[in-house]
Structures are given as C-alpha cells and as structure tokens.
C-alpha cells in the first residue's frame, strides 16, 4: 500500500547514502589537495634562490631540441651574498659554438668536442672551458666546442645526421671527442625529470625492427602516451620534493642502449671522415652523482669504441674541482682533464 511516510524514509536513506559516498570520495581528495599544498610550500621554502643571471642563449631546433644562438656575447653570473661565485661571458661563433683559441698557425686537422654543460663550460670563462684548455695544450690543432648545457648523447648523432660538419669545419680530417658524464644515460633514455625540466623536445632514438638505433621524432612527439603521463606527473609537488624520477633507477638495458647510441654516432662520424678518430672521454666521477661513468667502459669496449677513462683522474667531490653552489667542474678540473686528453691523443699515456 502506498505510503508517503515510506517514500520519505526511502528518500532520507538515499540522501544518507549519497552523503556517505560523497564524504568517502572527498576525504582522500581533500587529503591529496592538502598534501600537495603542504609540499608546494616546502618546495618553495627549501628551494635555492641564488642571485644568478643565466643568459637566454639558446633557440629552438628541430634536429637538436634547442641550440646555442650564433654570435652571442652574454654575461652570466652567480652570487653568494655579496660575493661573486663567477661572473663570466659566454661567447659563441657564427655556428653557435662556444669560442676557442685559434691555433698559432694554420693546421690541417681539427678536434670537435661534443657533450653537455661540462663541455660547454657552465660557469667558466671562454678560456677556461675544457675545449679551450685542450686548445692551449695543442696549439697546432683547430678546436671546436659543440657542447651545450643539458645535451646528451642523442645530440651527437642528431648533429652528425644533419651532415653539416663539413660546411662548418674547413679542415678535411680530425677527431671527435664526446665527453660522457654520468647524467647522460638518463638523458639518452629521456627520463621524466629531464623531460619535464628541459628535454621534452630532445631527439628521441629507439631500436628499429632490425635492432638498429633510429630517430623517432622527439621525446614529445615520439612517445605520446608517456608524454601525457609526464605532463600529469610534473605537477605533483610530492614527487618534486623527493626528487622522484622515472625510471626510478638506471637498469642494464639503459646502459646498453646508451652504448649503442654512442656506437651509432661513431659510425656516422667515420662515414663522413673515414680517416678520422672518434673518442669517448669518460669524465671524472662525482660521488654524489647516481651513476659512475666507469660502468660504461666495458660496453664501449665491446663495441670497439676508443675510450679514455678519466673517471678517477681527480675527485670531483673536492671543493677545488667544483664551482661552489653551482657544482659544475671548476677551471682547475677542466685543466687536469684537458692535459690528460692532450697527452692521450698525442700518444702519451694519461696519468
């Protein structure tokens, strides 16, 4: 029998269930919002806020992701209170390469350096970079600095695939030195933190059906599902606070892929310069970095890639070898590495 009382009771029960369901849903949502808000504040409080001028020195590049602006002459400085940690100028030539000293007399051969900020010379004057100090030890050699901040091994192969070196370097033969440091494995595979902070448009390489490394656009265009995931996760303040990265650790397959990517660069360079020399310089290791570059040595050896292992030449944890606060190699560190490389390439064993 129809009863308004039963209808009212049923309505009250339905409202109660909806309210309970809403509370059950809202509590975790509010918890996440509060947690993210708390870590947003923590990230702001704990972040370093140095007095720093970083010049806008790059422009977008489809082949490389970004590249240095040609003909730049920009000031860069870092201050610790009233004290300058560094105050330098970054100067590039007509092809966007960091300037190096010219040889004392015309030379027949060149040495072209590739790599990231350790090669570019972050925080250093033009004359104190690794390529420039190498040039000081080899006055009969034309030296070119193709390194740039944030670059990894993929920029080496991408640049070689452009086939523009012959237009940019007048010498007909020479040596390519790729400066490898521990962070380059994560750059090669396009880890989340690298993707989020600066490398989303970097060249993306992967194995083709024949097992050969091939270009697949950029990390942004070549991995659409991972792009959407990283776009979502980059907003997470908790992950940012704990410096969580994906993948969470470097696996053997990541090392193998990086070695294969370097081997592809070697093959591309020697195809353009059959009498040339391709050398991988394993940069001295810093204990606070995740990956010891020395672990790459046996993989490079398996692929018959000429390698100079300087991972234990100096201890980068010592203050004299790193720029304070910034933590990039100091001019003294670059001098030690440049001297060892010059001795090696000229036939003397590196100490």
Q: Can you write the helix and strand succession as a string?
A: HEEEEEEHHEHHEHHEEHHHHEHEH
CATH architecture of the largest domain, by name, is: 3-Layer(aba) Sandwich
Q: Assign an overall shape.
A: globular
CATH homology-level superfamily of the largest domain: SGNH hydrolase
Structural class comes to: alpha/beta
Helix content: 40-55%
| Spatial strand sequence of the major β-sheet | 7-6-8-11-12
Number of strands: 12
Instruction: Please tell me how large the radius of gyration is.
Output: 26 Å
**Count of DSSP H/I helices:** 13
Instruction: Tell me, rounded to a whole number, the average pLDDT.
Output: 86
Biggest sheet layout: 5 strands, parallel
- Our measurement of the CA-to-CA distance between the termini, rounded to an integer number of angstroms, reads 100 Å
Query: What is the CATH fold-level name of the largest domain?
Result: Rossmann fold
Work out the count of structural domains. 2
Name of the CATH first level of the largest domain: Alpha Beta
Share of β-strand residues: 15-25%
Can you tell me about this structure?
This protein is α/β, with parallel strands linked by helices and 351 residues long. It folds into two domains: 1-47; 50-345, SGNH hydrolase (Rossmann fold, 3-Layer(aba) Sandwich), CATH 3.40.50. Helices cover 41% and strands 19% of the residues. It has 13 helices and twelve strands. It has helices at residues 4-46, 117-120, 130-137, 153-162, 165-168, 184-189, 192-199, 219-222, 224-233, 237-241, 252-272, 297-302, 331-345, and strands at residues 51-53, 58-61, 65-68, 73-80, 83-91, 109-114, 142-145, 173-180, 203-207, 213-218, 277-282, 306-309. The strands form four sheets. A five-stranded parallel beta sheet has the order 7-6-8-11-12, sandwiched between helices. A three-stranded antiparallel beta sheet has the order 1-4-5, with no helix packed on it. A hairpin with a 3-residue loop joins β2 and β3 (65-68). α3 packs across α13 (331-345). The longest helix is centred in the N-terminal third of the chain and has 43 residues, at 4-46. The N and C termini lie far apart (100 Å). Residues 31-36 and 42-47 have low confidence and may be disordered.
């Amino acid at each position: 029998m129809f009863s308004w009382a039963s209808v009212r009771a049923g309505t009250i029960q339905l409202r109660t269930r909806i309210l309970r369901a809403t509370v059950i849903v809202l509590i975790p949502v509010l918890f996440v919002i509060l947690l993210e808000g708390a870590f947003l504040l923590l990230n702001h409080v704990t972040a370093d806020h140095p007095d720093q001028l970083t010049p806008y020195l790059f422009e977008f590049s489809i082949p490389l992701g970004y590249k240095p602006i040609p003909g730049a002459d920009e000031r860069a400085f870092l201050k610790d209170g009233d004290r300058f940690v560094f105050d330098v100028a970054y100067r590039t030539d007509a092809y966007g390469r960091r300037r190096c000293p010219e040889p004392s007399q015309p030379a027949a051969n060149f040495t072209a350096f590739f790599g990231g900020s350790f090669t570019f010379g972050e925080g250093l004057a033009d004359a104190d970079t690794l390529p420039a100090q190498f040039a000081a030890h080899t006055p009969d050699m034309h030296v070119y600095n193709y390194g740039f901040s944030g670059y990894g091994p993929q920029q080496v192969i991408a640049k070689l695939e452009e086939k523009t070196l012959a237009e940019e370097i007048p010498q007909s033969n020479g040596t390519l030195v790729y400066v490898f440091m521990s962070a380059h494995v994560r750059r090669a595979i396009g880890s989340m933190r690298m993707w989020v902070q600066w490398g989303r448009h970097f060249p993306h390489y992967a194995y083709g059906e024949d097992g050969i490394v091939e270009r697949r656009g950029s990390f942004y265009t070549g991995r659409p599902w991972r792009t959407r995931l990283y776009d979502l996760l980059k907003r997470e303040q908790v992950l940012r606070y704990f410096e969580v990265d994906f993948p969470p650790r470097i696996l053997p397959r990541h090392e193998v892929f990086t070695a294969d990517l370097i081997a592809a660069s070697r093959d591309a360079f020697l195809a353009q310069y059959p009498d040339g020399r391709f050398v991988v310089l394993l940069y001295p290791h810093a204990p606070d970095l995740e990956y010891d570059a020395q672990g790459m040595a046996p993989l490079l050896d398996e692929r018959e890639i000429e390698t100079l292992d300087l991972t234990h030449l100096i201890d980068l944890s010592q203050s004299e070898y790193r720029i304070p606060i910034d933590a990039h190699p100091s001019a003294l560190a670059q001098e030690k590495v440049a001297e060892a490389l010059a001795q090696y390439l000229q036939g003397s064993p590196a100490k």
